[in-house]
């Protein structure tokens, strides 16, 4: 398959996964390995990656030498909190600049606050961060975030953790058609078919956490998601047949078919 390129770096997997909600770091590691993901997102405000020396460190199970870490601002509701969190991540990870920005607007739905997101993105881009940004499926907001300099646009498919799948493929299609940076579905994926649909639409990738971690068998679901992303991308590249209504087109040719006795 073709590769995903973000901020000048090449990845063979188009599946990005999170590290939260697993029963322990051992299950986290097993699921990530089964997913084949190379970019792993980490909630800096909720996960220890060295800021708490007396607690288990995620990096012992998911080493930066093997994965590209994507620190995120999950749980941040203001520009200041988001910017401060990613500055901390850069210090903890020795100057790491690839980050995922999300500024939430509502604690119940976790819907993004686009005004605050744009403000935070402007600051972070000016400070040299490579910003992958979680946003709504508003094509205008997506365009503004790209113009600011974000390296990837990550519209939601549906609400974070909802598992509702892609509720508005038309808006996603507008964003995909007009973007010159990678577009990755972020939030709302519930099962493998949702991931496949996102890639079939032309999304460059998909990021998920709950869909895997909350499955009855997270490791098996991670494997399913890996296959779904690969299949969806291949289907997109192959180009699906045109949809037709009431237009018969036999799979097998009829020329040369021996006539039945009744038709002779």
TrEMBL record:
<comment type="similarity">
    <text>Belongs to the ThiG family.</text>
</comment>
<dbReference type="GO" id="GO:0005737">
    <property type="term" value="C:cytoplasm"/>
</dbReference>
<keyword id="KW-0808">Transferase</keyword>
<dbReference type="GO" id="GO:0009229">
    <property type="term" value="P:thiamine diphosphate biosynthetic process"/>
</dbReference>
<dbReference type="InterPro" id="IPR008867">
    <property type="entry name" value="ThiG"/>
</dbReference>
<dbReference type="Pfam" id="PF05690">
    <property type="entry name" value="ThiG"/>
</dbReference>
<comment type="function">
    <text>Catalyzes the rearrangement of 1-deoxy-D-xylulose 5-phosphate (DXP) to produce the thiazole phosphate moiety of thiamine. Sulfur is provided by the thiocarboxylate moiety of the carrier protein ThiS. In vitro, sulfur can be provided by H(2)S.</text>
</comment>
<keyword id="KW-0784">Thiamine biosynthesis</keyword>
<keyword id="KW-0963">Cytoplasm</keyword>
<feature type="binding site">
    <location>
        <position position="161"/>
    </location>
    <ligand>
        <name>1-deoxy-D-xylulose 5-phosphate</name>
    </ligand>
</feature>
<keyword id="KW-0704">Schiff base</keyword>
<feature type="domain" description="Thiazole synthase ThiG">
    <location>
        <begin position="6"/>
        <end position="253"/>
    </location>
</feature>
<feature type="binding site">
    <location>
        <begin position="209"/>
        <end position="210"/>
    </location>
    <ligand>
        <name>1-deoxy-D-xylulose 5-phosphate</name>
    </ligand>
</feature>
<comment type="subunit">
    <text>Homotetramer. Forms heterodimers with either ThiH or ThiS.</text>
</comment>
<dbReference type="GO" id="GO:1990107">
    <property type="term" value="F:thiazole synthase activity"/>
</dbReference>
<comment type="pathway">
    <text>Cofactor biosynthesis; thiamine diphosphate biosynthesis.</text>
</comment>
<dbReference type="InterPro" id="IPR013785">
    <property type="entry name" value="Aldolase_TIM"/>
</dbReference>
<feature type="binding site">
    <location>
        <begin position="187"/>
        <end position="188"/>
    </location>
    <ligand>
        <name>1-deoxy-D-xylulose 5-phosphate</name>
    </ligand>
</feature>
<dbReference type="InterPro" id="IPR033983">
    <property type="entry name" value="Thiazole_synthase_ThiG"/>
</dbReference>
<feature type="active site" description="Schiff-base intermediate with DXP">
    <location>
        <position position="100"/>
    </location>
</feature>
<protein>
    <recommendedName>
        <fullName>Thiazole synthase</fullName>
        <ecNumber>2.8.1.10</ecNumber>
    </recommendedName>
</protein>
């Amino acid at each position: 398959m073709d590769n995903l390129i973000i901020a000048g770096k090449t990845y063979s997997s188009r599946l990005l996964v999170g590290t939260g909600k697993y029963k322990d770091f051992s299950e986290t590691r097993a699921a990530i390995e089964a997913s084949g993901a190379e970019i792993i997102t980490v909630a800096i405000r909720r996960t220890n990656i060295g800021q708490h020396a007396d607690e288990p460190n995620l990096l012992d199970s998911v080493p930066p030498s093997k994965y590209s870490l994507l620190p995120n601002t999950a749980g941040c509701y203001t520009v200041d909190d988001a910017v401060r969190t990613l500055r901390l991540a850069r210090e903890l990870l020795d100057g790491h600049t690839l980050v995922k920005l999300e500024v939430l607007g509502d604690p119940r739905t976790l819907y993004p606050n686009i005004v605050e997101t744009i403000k935070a993105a402007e600051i972070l881009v000016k400070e040299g961060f490579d910003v992958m940004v979680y946003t709504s499926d508003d094509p205008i907001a997506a365009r503004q975030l790209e113009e600011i300099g974000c390296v990837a646009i990550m519209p939601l498919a549906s609400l974070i953790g909802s598992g509702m799948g892609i509720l508005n493929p038309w808006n996603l299609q507008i964003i995909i058609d007009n973007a010159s940076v990678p577009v990755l579905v972020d939030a709302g994926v519930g099962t493998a078919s949702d991931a496949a649909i996102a890639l079939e639409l032309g999304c460059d990738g998909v990021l998920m956490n709950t869909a895997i971690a909350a499955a009855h068998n997270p490791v098996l679901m991670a494997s399913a998601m890996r296959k779904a992303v690969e299949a969806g991308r291949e289907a997109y590249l192959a180009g699906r047949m045109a949809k037709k209504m009431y237009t018969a087109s036999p799979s097998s040719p009829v020329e040369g078919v021996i006539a039945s006795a009744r038709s002779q």
